[in-house]
Design goal:
Blueprint: H1 10-25, H2 31-42, H3 46-61, H4 64-72, H5 75-97, H6 106-134, H7 139-163, H8 169-187, H9 202-231, H10 236-250, H11 255-262, H12 288-293, H13 303-308, H14 314-322, H15 340-343, H16 347-368, H17 370-376, H18 383-410, H19 416-435, H20 440-467, H21 472-479, H22 482-506, H23 518-549
Helix pairs in contact: 1-6, 1-7, 1-8, 2-3, 2-8, 3-6, 3-22, 4-6, 4-21, 5-6, 5-8, 7-9, 7-10, 7-18, 7-20, 9-10, 9-18, 16-19, 16-20, 16-22, 16-23, 18-20, 19-20, 19-23, 20-21, 22-23
Length: 563
């Protein structure tokens, strides 16, 4: 493993760079922008288009290889893989939509879309795992910020699509093919393991508040400019100026390390976090203080290294245990570090997976079909719907991280209670969609965007708090598999099928009216009802864990996490 980057400034440099990578990672939300052109150019029906939407979700959420790679390689390796697959996948899609290559088969485009969006899992896993370990005492806040910027990315891409690319799907795909690799290669050097920032330092709280405020300012700006673009005819010059301001706002988090450089605080002797979920201090090999603190106690003579040696057989371990040379390793408790195999047999693991599956899966079904839903309900310009969803998705992610962090520290309320509240609101949103009442489309989209963001922002810190940070990349990416599976069931097999049947009844080239998706919305509402019940059960089960972890108002790192 590479040596840690020491000092209080590097983690904030890495967080600022991660913002740009997260915006690039949000390419998964651009599917509604080019799906109509893909359908027209390739002559697909709605069912085929929804299957491609499922491919979009499959690629995004096959992240277990990225999680394994994060445990074995430095972040730049994982980022490099993401860059390569994005270039290849979107390159093939650009060849198809631009008609540079004619008559590409459906199966090839399905694979290309899986590959293209799979780059997001590599990029997102690298920056999320690295920053969660760099800020282990502020997991909810960090997850909310990073996932919030992904939520904003749809609006960022929409701005670029409408103001710079002339609403050309082929230009957008070329931009994704070349732009994502360039951004990630530029940021790669700054995303690295660092000495964890101290959560007890008041400046850390101020810096997080600044980052959150900067992201909110960006969100408001994006929503405002999207509305202006929709109601006014802006010249190219004004459009480019607006894009330049957006870029400046995206650079705002870099102000933190710049301020720390120009106005350094009084230096304090850093105290490594001992017994942390990833033993981060152990990687800084040239620190004698760290080494002395990590010397095993006499009651457990080098137990960890004995068990971690791959060359020691089980028979040798049993003999050593019998002779009293070592103590038998106990199974981890919730709140300590679990391996994937240890976590996957726990009831809480599958409860969290199911809650996430039902909440995010139902939300992504609407997202994949948002353009068609808008047209069916009488909206001509569906980019406004996408921007509204993006803005509210961001609010849900950022707000869930901050609000859950406050209540978990002040009241030890498990974060999963917010997943229950969110899914109750999602039921209301789906019923509004199904009603087809004039004026409810935007309200339903806003509510759904917020609640969709809440599910994502809550699952991430909960997984790390229940099962530790050591194998967090693998565990969190396995949780993410609920997204494409639900998209396949609810979007590919349900929504597309219902839409095509109603379209055939109407005898037109597209389906119009609330009946196009009404049955789908009723099914999604019932799924969220089930998800609410399961999230309440999970909250009750893990309440003691949060009382243990956050007793005294701050996160307590287990001293028995080393295994």
């Amino acid at each position: 493993m590479p040596a840690l980057k020491a000092g209080s400034r590097p983690p904030w440099v890495g967080l600022g760079a991660a913002v740009w990578v997260q915006i690039a990672t949000g390419n998964i939300y651009t599917f509604p922008l080019y799906s109509a052109s893909l359908k027209t150019v390739m002559g697909y029906n709605q069912h085929q288009l929804t299957i491609l939407g499922v491919a979009n979700d499959i690629g995004e959420n096959i992240g277990i290889p990225a999680g394994i790679a994060c445990n074995k390689f430095p972040p730049w390796v994982v980022l490099s893989i993401g860059v390569c697959v994005c270039f290849l996948g979107y390159g093939v899609l650009w060849l198809a939509v631009s008609q540079t290559v004619q008559s590409l088969p459906f199966w090839l485009l399905f694979i290309a879309l899986c590959v293209a969006t799979n780059g997001s899992s590599w990029l997102g896993t690298a920056v999320l795992v690295t920053n969660m370990k760099n800020f282990p005492l502020s997991r909810g806040t960090v997850a909310g910020i990073l996932k919030g910027y992904i939520g904003l990315s749809a609006a960022v891409y929409t701005e670029v699509y409408t103001m710079v690319l002339g609403e050309s799907a082929s230009k957008l795909l070329l931009f994704l093919t070349l732009g994502i690799p360039l951004v990630c290669l530029a940021m790669m050097y700054f995303i690295r393991p660092c000495t964890p920032a101290s959560g007890e330092d008041s400046s850390v709280h101020v810096h997080f508040l600044f980052t959150q405020a900067a992201s909110i300012a960006l969100a408001i700006y994006l929503l405002t400019t999207t509305i202006l673009k929709d109601i006014l005819s802006l010249s190219n010059t004004i459009s480019y100026v607006l894009i330049a301001i957006m870029i400046i706002l995206l650079m705002a988090p870099i102000a933190i390390p710049i301020k720390m450089t120009l106005f350094p605080a009084n230096p304090k002797k850093p105290m490594p976090l001992i017994g942390s979920s990833n033993d981060l201090g152990a990687e800084e090999g040239d620190s004698s203080q760290t080494e002395s603190l990590l010397v095993p106690s006499s009651s457990e003579p080098y137990l960890g290294s004995f068990y971690e040696s791959e060359d020691v057989s089980e028979v040798d371990i049993l003999l050593a245990v019998g002779e009293g040379a070592v103590k038998k390793k106990r199974k981890p408790k919730r709140g300590e570090d679990f391996t994937f195999r240890e976590a996957v047999v726990k009831a809480d693991f599958w409860l969290l997976w199911l809650v996430y599956f039902l909440g995010v899966g139902s939300g992504v079904t609407v997202l994949n079909n948002l353009a068609q839903i808008g047209v069916a309900l009488g909206v001509d310009d569906t980019t406004v719907l996408l921007s509204l969803f993006s803005f509210c998705n961001f609010l849900g992610r950022l707000g869930a991280g901050a609000v859950s962090e406050h209540f978990v520290r002040s009241k030890t309320i498990p974060r999963t209670v917010w997943m229950a509240f969110a899914q109750i609101i999602m039921i209301v949103a789906f019923l509004l969609y199904a009603s087809g009442i004039s004026g409810t489309l935007y309200a339903a989209t806003a509510l759904l965007g917020i609640c969709y963001g809440v599910q994502i922002a809550i699952m991430i810190p909960v997984a790390s708090e229940l099962f530790g940070l050591k194998h967090f990349g693998i565990i969190f990416n396995f949780m993410g598999l609920g997204n494409p599976l639900a998209a396949l069931l609810f979007s590919g097999l349900l929504a597309g099928y219902v839409y095509d049947i109603e379209e055939a009844k109407q005898g037109g080239s597209s389906c119009l009216g609330p009946n196009c998706f009404r049955l789908t919305f009723y099914v999604l509402a019932s799924m969220c009802g089930l998800g609410t019940i399961l999230s309440i059960i999970l909250t009750i089960r893990i309440k003691p864990v949060y009382q243990m972890l956050y007793a005294g108002g701050s996160f307590r790192i287990s001293q028995s996490s080393n295994h």
